[in-house]
Amino acid sequence: MRIGVIGTGTIAGAVVRGIAGDGHQITVSERSAAVSAELAGAFDTVSVAPNQTVLEQSDVIFLGLMAEAAPSILAPLVFRADQQVISFMAGIDPEQLQALVAPAQAAAVMMPFPGIARGGSAIMALGDIDLVKAIFGARNTVFALSDTAELDAYICAQAVLSPVARMVGDAADWLGTRVSDPAQGEAFLRMLVASSLADTGCTDLIEALNTPGGYNQRLRQHMEAAGQTGDLRSGLDGLLR
Ligand SMILES: NC(=O)c1ccc[n+]([C@@H]2O[C@H](COP(=O)([O-])OP(=O)(O)OC[C@H]3O[C@@H](n4cnc5c(N)ncnc54)[C@H](OP(=O)(O)O)[C@@H]3O)[C@@H](O)[C@H]2O)c1
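Above are the sequence and the NAP SMILES. Below is the predicted complex in structure-token form.
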């Protein structure tokens, strides 16, 4: 495919790294000079151009702009009716996207994570799932959403990642003051949590770790009694509001 990227920042840079070896012709916007130059230097399938040239050289366009900046950046650009646009921008729904990129087709709103650069990443997407899978599905898992209400809920719920990292990090700090190799301690905890949840559903994992009086049961019950579950739900409700 001929793929263009407008807004080549943190997430779009990771996306490009993830697909740069797949034979696409990729043109990235010259703005975000450091990321764009690094991508073009690393991959001979990637070139750098001004925004309008990016569009002229591409059939599928990725938008990695900040949502609040997108209208003024996209307004002067001319899209073609035969182009398909995939947005990574949180806060812009498919209807708003369509208005920003007409006469091109707003094909999908997709939320990638930085891990997409190396594959094995979870991707949530609303819209043309076949197109998203055709580009990213070989090395990642695409989770199809049915409407904007689902997209909003998923965007809120995915924010559990940061508190989970905080919790694992706090446990690693606690462990690090008691062992000879703190880095190994953190690596152990990260692998334990990631691999356990990759293999097993949450309810099944909690049940498997529910030995009466065992360490896992006692710490979970301590955290629940401290209000952790209620805090999480009210935090998610707050995000959705
Ligand atoms: N970061 C994530 O993990 C993540 C995950 C999913 C979705 N998203 C969404 O992706 C979007 C970008 O997030 P990000 O974290 O990647 O932010 P970011 O690193 O700030 O990327 C935004 C990019 O837009 C560029 N830009 C600004 N003005 C431009 C213009 N006139 N023409 C072309 N490019 C321009 C910026 O370039 P300069 O650096 O030169 O200003 C910057 O590189 C956001 O809407 C966010 O919600 C992010």
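The longest strand covers residues 105-111.
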